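Appendix B. Chain record.
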Amino acid sequence: MPLLGSAAMLLSFDIEGHAVEEHDRWHTHEHLPERLAIPGFLRGTRWIATEGQPRYMVVYEVESLAILASDAYLSRLNNPSPWTTRMMVHYRGMNRGLCTVLGSFGYGQGGTAALIRFAADASRASPLGRWLLEDELPGVPGLPGLGSVHLLQGAQAAAMTHEQRIRGADRAAASAIVVTGYDAGAVAAYAQKLCAASGLPHHEAGEPSCAIYGCSYSLASTEITV
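Structure tokens predicted for this chain:
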């Protein structure tokens, strides 16, 4: 199981163009270390879009869903640093999902990722889940160019915090698949297959959206010295 915990926080968003350079510097040198110092946060990875939008995807792997409602985490959100406060105003279109990891297959993390978002009708959620977890996703890591795949499902609403008030209310995530691999073309081709009429739409997952990302920076909690 390549993801390091049973839950994940999935974020996708844009940043005002003039603030991109400072955002990446802040996110690398302050924000990720701050988040990974919170008990239960295991790894955080920032991705930059190479095809599609929004510009950023960030995945935080956490021990359990309870970590994303913990006092330690909410305290950081309600007491942002001066640099964080300055950066929050530049966020646009934040989509923030507090997710259960329904399935995670393969090992490691490739340098390219596809983010596929979809929403299934409640009456079709169980058949769709069985198809993905039993038939479709387990074989993905064995395909040329691919390495791992994760099925995430939004599981709880994010609390309103001071950080969110500064940047504006976040949108919630429904369901998502994250595919990673070492061959960008293979990752994109598999994502296109899932999004084609014979893939997710055939199993009544609505109209999925897809974007391709390259890894920008990753940090694990074991690298943090408090």
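Further analysis of this model is presented in Appendix C.
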